[in-house]
Each structure stands twice: as C-alpha cells, then as structure tokens.
Amino acid sequence: MATEVLIPKLGMTMTEGTVAEWRVPDGASVQAGEIVFHLETEKIEFEVEAETAGIVRHVVPAGSTLPPGAIVGYILAPGEALPASVPAAADVGVISSGPASATAATTVPAIGEGGRTLASPAARRVAAELGVNLGNVRGTGPGGRIIETDVTAAKQSPAPVAASESSARIAASPIARGLAEQLGIDLGRVTGTGPGGRVTKEDVEAAAAAPPPVPATPAREAGQVIPMRGMRKVIAERMHGSLQQMAQLTMAMEVEMDEAVKLRTALVAEWEPEGIRPGYTDLVIKAVAKALRLHPRLNSTVTANGIELLPDIHVGMAVAVEDGLLVPVIRDADRAPLRDIASESTRLATLAREGKLGPDDMAGGTFSVTTLGMSGVDFFTPVINPPNTAILGVGRIHDALRWDGERPLRCSQMTLSLTIDHRAVDGAPGAAFLQTVRDLLQSPYRLLI
Prior knowledge:
With 449 residues, this protein is of the alpha+beta class. The chain has helices at residues 121-130, 148-155, 162-169, 174-183, 201-209, 230-245, 258-271, 280-294, 338-354, 427-442, and strands at residues 3-6, 17-22, 29-30, 35-41, 45-49, 54-58, 65-66, 71-76, 248-256, 300-303, 306-309, 315-317, 319-321, 324-326, 329-330, 367-371, 390-394, 398-404, 407-421. The chain is built from ten helices and 19 strands.
C-alpha cells in the first residue's frame, strides 16, 4: 500500500514549508528511517525521514512551498503503481513551485544575503567532516544550493593546500597549533599577541569565538529579484507587523563592565574542565532574568483583554544564521544557575547555526536579548519580537573614561538598548528595569546567587 510523504506540522505557528531538497531521487529506493527530503520552514530546517521502505515517487519538485499536511510524494512497494488519484502539484496546495528540473546543475554556488554560500545543513556537516571548502563546491540543488552529494563529489577532486601550508609557516606555540587543528582554525587568519607576534592558545580561542568573516556581497545583475520566502519572508512580515502594531520606544544606558570582565575571565578558567565557556551575553541574560522578577510588566504580552503578566521567565537569545535570525529560548532563566545558562546558550547557538533547532527550542519566549557587540556596534534600536513587550540590545565592550572626583579613570563600558511596547510599559518603568540590569552587571557576583 502506498505510503504518503507529507509536509509535517512543526509547531502550532507553522503555516507553510518548502521542499528545499529531495534527498532520494524520484524512482530510487529508500529504507525506513532514511532522509527523504529536506524541509525549510519559516523558523527552522528539518530532515524528513521515511516511515517505511520502498520506492520514492515525487509529486512536487524541489523548491515547492506547501501548507502542513500536503502530500509531496509517495513510498511504494516494489512493482506497486501510484494511486489512481495522485494529485497534481496544483491540487496539493502548492503555494509556490520550484524549478522545472530539480536536478539541473549550476556552474557556481548559490549566494545568499551577505555573500554567504547557500548549502543544506547536511552539506555543511559533511563539509566540516571532510574538510571541504564550500566556496569551491558547485551546487546542484534548487537555485544552485549545495547538497550533500556535491560535497562528497568535491572531496574526490584535488583541493588547494595553500592555507594549511601557510599555517605551518606561522609562528605559533605547540598548544596553539594543536588547538587550531582541533577547532579547524587557519593560523594564517589569527593575529598573534605573543612575543614577536607568536600565536598563543588564547589567540586561537579568541579566533574561534569570533563570528565568521562575511564575504563581500557579489555584484547583482540589474533587475535581479531575490525571492523572499521561508525564514526571510517570515522575518520581514513579523518585524513589519511588530512596528505597525506596537508603539515602540527605545532608550539606552551605559554600563561599566570592569567587574563583569573580571568575573567572566575567572569563570572561563574555573569551568574550562567542564567544557563550559561563558560569554558576556550569558551574564546579560541572567541579569535580565533576575530583573524581570522585580519588573514583571516587561515580562508580559498585550491581549484583547489587557496586559497579561506572564508567570514564567523564558529569555530568547537572537542567533544570526545564514539569510536570517533565529531566537532559541532559555527556559526558566531566572531560576537557572549562570553555569547552566552558559551551557544551554552554547548548545542552542550551535544547533541554530547547524540548522538543527527543533520547534520546542524556539517556543514560549517571554523576553528577548539580541547583541551586535561582536560586530563592533555600540548602539542600535532592536525591534520587539511579538508577542513580547520588550527586547534588550547589547553593544560592544569598549574602552571609556569615568571620573573619580576630578581624576579620570579608564574603564570598560557597554551600551544597553531597551525597546519597550509603550502600550504596556511606560518610559519610567522601562528605565527602572534598565537600571536594575545595569546594577547587576556592575556588581556581577550577585548573578551567582
């Protein structure tokens, strides 16, 4: 009996999904549990497995966007014919269709916004395992997207070795070399701070923690249209709707971070044996969670009945990914120890960048924290993530001056940018919340209590 291959319903808010890549060609065999196709939704990417063994037959081409529950294909027993009532693509609820030929090869990799190469999560995982540079791989997926088979094929071709050869000539400590090899860091791209410019272990760790460099945006042809779909489409709709439906006000406050820097440095050393490396965003998330207990109006949502104060504090952390932004959620952040927050934020950020977040990882956030500090930004106006009533933006830590009477003193400083929904929160309560977050960060040992 024919088994339907469907667009799964991933979360209550999912309205559509795109068959980004058929992992099993039309007419090929599949085993139960193997990946049939790669699904993209407005929030996550998901690999759909075969429920049974058999022959896969496609109903829609790769690139088609459909609502949850729509039939995209069938799995048939050997010799079994397609059901007599197989729907055409127009009859299964296709919202938009992919290319006529999903297997047409491209001569260059597809480039997303910001100049990043477009590749499926499986392709990125295999590329990392095989040491393949995706920039040198030709994609044969929808729109030139790189798929897993492209990576394995590229591995069989000669690969440039200039980077590794140049790394061998870089002055670096043995520990730094071993760590760089383990983390996949090109020593040629690391700035050495040791004697004579020698690369140290700390330099490699800093390079690993830094965001990946964004390639220059390639030239666009006149009249070219970049499709707005999937994650990009939903971000556009939600952010535009957020500004239309709320009365948003942004305020900023400077925070002296000297004590926070000391605490974070001490915790990195103390928790290193456990593989936990706290970041400054973890300190901010914990400070926000503690402050929300004292200022519950900012942990709320506006409903038809009024302002609903939420009983739980679940802090969303914005993570930049290819062509978009994901906001996984750290649950019960007010009750979680800072060590657990650091561990969970690392786990969620890793899953987000690998395209492996599940619907539950991003559901239920009551407040959001977003940072552009690693990009050198001091101040920005974050847009509230509905249905929240506030969001906190985090700028970079930079050198500044403070005054001790008539004496100027050098200090580390950071700017916090709070955007509130003025329908639910007035300026004075918003400022009081921001002051509490500031005070906690300036006396950060309170975050360990």
